[in-house]
Every structure is written in structure tokens, then in C-alpha cells.
Amino acid sequence: VKDLVKRLKEIPEVLEAVPAGSFRRAEETVGDIDILVTTKSEKNVEAQAKKITGAFIKFKEVSNILGEGETKVSIMTRQGLQVDVRVVAPSQFGSALQYFTGSKKHNVHLRTYAKARGFKLSEYGFFKGEKVVARKTEEECYAALGMQYIPPELRTDTGEIEAALKHKIPTDLIQFKDLRGDLHAHSTYSDGGDTIETMVAEAERI
């Protein structure tokens, strides 16, 4: 995914490319890959998108094209992984990234809360009536609903929306640098060289 994102950023029409979906949420398992791309200019977005997706489908990893639209393309990699690339204007980056990052339950809960208060949410912006109230950044999108910013890893509808409304979202999540080690052992139940009993006996001995 990181390699695809890096090479997407090298396409002349691309301003930014960011993974979304379950990959960005750092879920234990990941289905298909969503990558959000913004164009360098607000003008002629569809024309720029066509050049971006046209360049993307020529990447060596692409096995076949599953579907194409004016601003998106879905492909299957040679490893059997589905990748969906969606292109939006720079001004829509925040709302689109929010829309394509949250789990289904998170997004449904958020839209239900917003709709009850007269808002309409989509990848193209957060609207109050016909007026765009937020879309450039994810932070301003959540703020428009009176919420604290919710980190991607927490967008699973497990109480984060209620916490964000009370501004009680943790501001310092566990990072890779916080890990001190990862220790585990394999036994003869799989591909290890000793039984569990032997390892227990050795652990007690030392």
C-alpha cells in the first residue's frame, strides 16, 4: 500500500494520496484497499482524474480492472488484493477522507446524528442546507458537528462519537515507539521444535 501511495504521488496531476478504510484505521484484518487522491488544481477535476486513473492502471501490480468511473477506478492486483482509487478536488480532501475512513457503523452513527441536526454529510462536504460548512480538513468536519477530532483508529462506533461530543477523546494514542517488545513461542502444535510441556519446564528452570 505504501509503495502504491508513493508512486501515485509521483503522477504529475496528484497533489496528495492517502490510504483510507480499514487500512487507515489499523484494523486487525483488512479487506480491499481504499486510496484517496486529490488533484493539484480545483479546475477540470474530472480531466485530471482521468489522467491519474489512466496512469494508475498501468502500474505493474495491476492484474485486471474491475470498474472505472469519471473519478475512480477499482483494480485487482496480481496478489489478489482489490484496490479502489478515488479522486477529489483539494477543497474536498477533509470530508472525503472522513467519509472513506470510518467504519460503516461509525459513518451511519455520525450521519444519523448530523441529519437530526439539519446537516447532510457526503464525501463532497458537510452541508447545512445548501451551504458547505466544512470539507477542507477532517478536523473542521468534526468541529462543525461540535465534536472533537476522532483519530482513524477509534472510528469503530464503540463510544467515540459520544466521547468526542464531550471532548474526552484521548489525545495521545499508543504509538509504535511505545512498544517495548514482542515475545512469543511456537510449539510442536505448529512449526516449533519442542512441546509446550518442555518449554514450561525450561521456563521454570531458568
Task: Estimate what percentage of residues fall within beta strands.
Answer: 15-25%
Structural class: alpha+beta
* Helix run count: 8
Euclidean distance between termini CA atoms: 43 Å
- Low-confidence runs (pLDDT<50, min 5 residues)? none
**What is the strand arrangement across the widest sheet?**
1-2-5-4-3
Mean pLDDT: 95
Radius of gyration: 22 Å
Shape: flat
Helix share of residues?
Answer: 25-40%
Helix and strand sequence = HEHEHEEEHHEEEHHH
Biggest sheet overview: 5 strands, mixed
Count the strands?
8
Give a description of the structure.
Helix 4 crosses helix 6 (138-144). The protein has helices spanning 2-8, 21-24, 45-56, 93-101, 104-115, 138-144, 160-165, 196-205; strands at 14-19, 33-39, 62-68, 72-77, 82-88, 119-122, 125-128, 131-134. Helix content is 33%, strand content 22%. The strands form two sheets. It has a five-stranded mixed sheet with strand order 1-2-5-4-3, sandwiched between helices. The chain has eight helices and eight strands; from the N terminus they run αβαβαβββααβββααα. The chain has 206 residues and is α+β, with helices and mostly antiparallel strands.
Question: What structural keywords apply?
Answer:
three-stranded antiparallel beta sheet; five-stranded mixed beta sheet; alpha+beta; 206 residues
